[in-house]
Amino acid sequence: MLGKDGPVKKVQWVGADNNVVVITAAGEIDLHQSNAFQQSLMEPLEQNPSRVVVDLSEVSYMDSSGVASLVKLLSRAMKQGIDVRLAGLNERVRSIFEITRLDTVFGIYPTVEEAVVSE
Amino acid sequence: MLGKDGPVKKVQWVGADNNVVVITAAGEIDLHQSNAFQQSLMEPLEQNPSRVVVDLSEVSYMDSSGVASLVKLLSRAMKQGIDVRLAGLNERVRSIFEITRLDTVFGIYPTVEEAVVSE
Amino acid sequence: MNESTSKLTCAPVRMSVFSTPSHVAVVRVAVERYCALLGFSKRSAGEVALSVDEALTNVIKHAYHGKEDMPIEVVMESTIVDQRDALRIEIRDWGTAIEPDKIKSRDLNEIRPGGLGVHIMKQCMDSVDYIPLPQRGTKLVMIKYCNP
Amino acid sequence: MNESTSKLTCAPVRMSVFSTPSHVAVVRVAVERYCALLGFSKRSAGEVALSVDEALTNVIKHAYHGKEDMPIEVVMESTIVDQRDALRIEIRDWGTAIEPDKIKSRDLNEIRPGGLGVHIMKQCMDSVDYIPLPQRGTKLVMIKYCNP
Ligand SMILES: Nc1ncnc2c1ncn2[C@@H]1O[C@H](COP(=O)(O)OP(=O)(O)O)[C@@H](O)[C@H]1O
Ligand SMILES: Nc1ncnc2c1ncn2[C@@H]1O[C@H](COP(=O)(O)OP(=O)(O)O)[C@@H](O)[C@H]1O
User: Which residue, of A14, A20, A91, B119, has the fewest CB within 10 Å?
Assistant: First the structure.
């Protein structure tokens, strides 16, 4: 499901033990894109990363469908003991997390680098 | 007519003898804006500049109404022996001059600086 | 909004679309641009666009259960509400009517994927009214004041 | 455009606006976004948006002589023309009907401000058809193929 039309453009394994997965999304994530988005978010969990970082720096817009995909990722990851972090949210995307008060539930980092290396 | 709502944001006199006027426009210039645009373009002609440079680098979009305003400026200026140059056109704005073949009628320069100093 | 802006921009814009998820974006950009004409800040215009997106998403999911070829009408217009300039957006569907007790605000402390749409609309707009229609479907009326 | 895109995005979008110059931009952004859904390049989508802008500008100026409260209908849809995927845009007014001999292409070597709109539309679209209507007004149908 890494079709060029879905919002996930890249999946990379990084970190000392290659155990952090960075998922890079782009574009506008609404109802039209949220199924593809969710599927691409879930796939890397099968390889049991210790941490998932979702790079949203190229996501210009997100509605509650996109947020719901991330919440589903978080719920599943928490059950597996996997840490989920979001990075690079623009002001507009950040505000939907604030409105829904999910900004306190996700770890939100300014950059992918910080999300990868912070404790 | 230098209202903050019109497309012309700045009018500056530059050059060795202060005889070149640089008119800076911004935004989208269509039917809604073209009257205000035209009026702001014509005003400086009264001070008899030797050259008019229209800075379009912050104009994101223009239709034939905007082009018509510039053609009216050119016709009037030519009668007064004043040189008209356009600068900083983005690809989209440039293409409407190409489609209407007016790219050969106006002097079109990459930057305001070049438009001001070139012979 | 002064007299002249109001004369030029107040006219309503109506969009008739089908319940196709990809078309939500087409309505969204038009609404956002309409807001800009009315003098809304970028942030406020974005909030209105998001609210319309959430409303259309709900129509597609709940009124039409994912069927993609059902009609939706959106009307945006500038109006006066309580003596203040306001944007009024009406969204109408002809699907399963809303059950008013389902749209009560949810407990946000509960972490679950659904139930965010109506909460977002209520946060972003000054008023959100769902009117189940006698024949079929729902009419949603949202208001946002122009100068907060 | 493959089967699945086509099922998702082909549905028509209809916009009913008034002849208000500032609203041309609202239609323009919606059309441009619709083109993006159909897979048009940024450049092609921009050409379609410009053509719609020029058509609406002409309706406001020539069909309605600057009157700002007259109706205009715009329908964009994806269709098949000559066995090729195409975007079809229909723009209808109820004003002074067009005189077909006025829309002949002008001599571009003449430097004058007017007469550019129809030329631009013909350059940017694959076909441009003006149909004066028996009762009142004009219907304009413009086609652009999806994959040139
Ligand atoms: N247009 C509509 N027609 C019918 N029911 C609706 C409509 N909009 C919302 N609803 C109902 O309101 C509920 C709450 O919507 P919302 O807050 O967006 O959360 P979610 O869509 O995730 O359930 C929905 O579950 C649905 O029952
Ligand atoms: N919707 C319309 N209704 C009536 N006449 C029209 C319409 N659109 C175009 N025309 C006619 O076609 C002519 C050419 O239009 P155009 O090329 O855009 O140049 P301009 O608008 O500068 O005259 C107009 O002058 C007008 O007579």
Answer: B119
pTM exceeds 0.80, yes or no? yes
Please report whether residue D5 resides in a domain. Answer: no
Per-residue pLDDT of D49-99, as tens digits, reads: 999 999 999 999 999 999 999 999 999 999 999 999 999 999 999 999 988
Contact (CB, 8 A) for D144 and D47: yes
Q: Strand, helix or coil at C80?
A: strand
Structural domains of chain A in order of their starting residue, each with its CATH number: 8-117 (3.30.750.24)
Helical H segments across C38-96, by residue range: 42-58
Q: What is the DSSP letter of B81?
A: T
pLDDT at position A8 over 60: yes
Identify which of B31, B63, B64 to mutate to test ligand 2's pocket (most ligand atoms within 8 A of the CB).
B64
Tell me if D1 is assigned to some domain: no
Whether D124 maps to a domain, the answer reads: yes
Q: In sequence order, what are the beta bridge partners of D42?
A: none
Residue D120: which of B74, B75, B99 has the nearest Cβ? B99
Q: Which domain holds residue C22?
A: 13-145
Strand (E) or helix (H) holding D102: none
Q: CB–CB of C10/C77 below 8 Å?
A: yes
Evaluate whether chains B and A are touching (3 or more beta carbon pairs less than 8 Å apart).
no
Domain count, chain C: 1
Looking at residue C48, which CATH number applies to its domain?
3.30.565.10
ipTM greater than 0.95:
no
pLDDT the model gives residue A3: 43
